[in-house]
Specification:
The protein has two domains: about 5-155 and about 365-385, nicotinate phosphoribosyltransferase (Alpha-Beta Barrel); about 160-355, nicotinate phosphoribosyltransferase (Alpha-Beta Barrel), CATH 3.20.140.10. It contains 17 helices and twelve strands. It has helices at about 30-40, 60-70, 80-90, 95-105, 130-135, 135-150, 160-175, 190-205, 220-225, 235-245, 250-260, 275-280, 285-290, 300-315, 330-340, 355, 400-410, and strands spanning about 45-55, 115-120, 120-130, 180, 210-215, 225-230, 265-270, 290-295, 320-325, 345-350, 365-375, 380-385. Strand 4 (about 180), helix 8 (about 190-205) and strand 5 form a beta-alpha-beta unit.
């Protein structure tokens, strides 16, 4: 039962309310900031809609919904401090000073959210300017996760830091370059921070001869003096689908991104409308410009075979490129992928929930927030979707998914 009654007294204030759980403006994934900056430059007035998708049900109470809304009302108090602005600008030099000035003035607006419960199922819709609402995704999921476990009375077991140390050591032994991607479905902020610190100790940083590249969490990256990592998400490709049509989505997403960032942040996400469709429009120019591709669904080994052939067909040596794997990774799978890619193509990894929410007796929440629509300037609402290389990870209204598959010629 998710109830205030189950909450550890250390998390309560003098009046018996849960203390503010989200306390740092930069406690967010880097790709929120990079997409916001790109959207501000390329499509600043575009409104989008997102929704919470629950892949495996978990029961919530009215008390949980009310507390979630209360916690969200703290968000407008978060802001980018002068000190953090300076550190952020130095670490992410590809973000322009004009964007940093805009970010200094940015405040979360809870009116962009609609939150309710249908029975004991949590529902959330997000609507607003893409360049603003893109910041809600990661903090919302992290808050839902931490609040759910807090109100369920769950506590981390005593060995979770030791397990993280062992994972970090093993990743170093395997020789797997990786970033920590665990913010969205972490057990709590404190657990993620402790896990990352343990990984730094045992994996070692890439710049010092280790294998840990960095973390997607900007606040933690700046806290520990490591690299913030990330590029863009499926919603960037969906944005372009809404504006230009799904057959132009991949091409325009890559083109817009390179117009904003040039050769920085050169990782292409391939599976929004299936990797097979992506490869059809992935020409030699983009394949040379983008140094890596990201695998986020489907069979990773089949993915490697497809990408190897795609590069070879474009007369590009695959060993000069990298695949970033980010789909539900654990250490055993990472080891198998490293061995499979050896001598063929470089590999790197973004490892999330299996690091930041590896708590004995706790099952991480299987939740995502995905875009479902783009609003055009003439007032038309265009439904958007994600097809994915894994049918279970598809999102969007059924009729939009069907029409998208029809447009792309991939109906089965």
């Amino acid at each position: 039962m998710v109830s205030i009654k189950n909450v550890n007294p250390l998390y309560l204030d003098a009046e018996g309310f849960i203390k503010q759980l989200y306390n740092h403006f930069l406690d967010n994934d880097l790709y929120a900031y990079t997409m916001a900056n790109a959207a501000q430059r390329m499509s600043p007035d575009t409104v989008t809609e997102d929704e919470l998708i629950i892949r495996k049900s978990f029961k919530i109470t009215e008390e949980f919904v009310n507390e979630l809304k209360r916690q969200i009302n703290f968000f407008p108090s978060l802001f980018l401090s002068d000190e953090d602005e300076e550190k952020f600008q130095k670490a992410c030099y590809y973000l322009p000073k004009t964007f940093m000035k805009w970010l200094k003035a940015y405040r979360y607006d809870p009116s962009e959210l609609t939150i309710w419960a249908e029975g004991n199922v949590l529902k959330i819709k997000i609507k607003g300017l893409f360049c603003r609402t893109v910041f809600w995704e990661t903090p919302l999921m992290a808050l839902i996760s931490e609040l759910f476990f807090l109100m369920s009375g769950e506590v981390p077991d005593a060995e979770y830091i030791h397990r993280a140390e062992q994972k970090g050591l093993r990743l170093r032994q395997i020789g797997a370059r990786y970033s920590e991607f665990g913010t969205r479905r972490r057990f709590s902020f404190e657990v993620q921070k402790n896990v990352l610190e343990a990984l730094i100790r045992t994996s070692g940083l890439l710049k010092d001869g280790g294998v840990l590249v960095g973390t997607s969490n900007v606040y933690l990256a700046l806290l520990f003096g490591i690299t913030p990592t990330g590029t863009n998400a499926h919603k960037w490709y969906q944005l372009c689908a809404g504006l230009f049509g799904v057959r132009m989505a991949n091409r325009m997403a890559l083109q817009w991104w390179s117009e904003v960032y040039g050769t920085y942040l050169g990782t292409a996400l391939t599976d929004t409308y299936t990797t097979d469709d992506f490869i059809k429009t992935f020409d030699r120019h983009d394949a040379m410009l983008y140094e890596s591709v990201r695998q986020d669904s489907g069979d990773p080994f089949e993915y490697v075979r497809k990408i190897l052939k795609a590069y070879e067909d474009l007369l590009i040596r695959p060993i000069t490129k990298t695949i970033l794997f980010s789909d539900s990774l654990n250490i055993d799978l990472v080891e198998k992928i490293v061995a499979f890619c050896a001598g063929k193509i470089n590999c790197a990894f973004g490892i999330g929930t299996s690091l930041s929410n590896d708590i004995i007796g706790v099952e991480p929440l299987k939740i995502v927030i995905k875009q479902i629509a783009v609003w055009l300037q003439d007032g038309r609402r265009v439904g958007t979707c994600k097809i994915s290389d894994d049918p279970e990870k598809a999102s969007g209204a059924q009729e939009v998914v069907w029409h998208t598959k029809y447009e792309l010629g991939i109906l089965q």
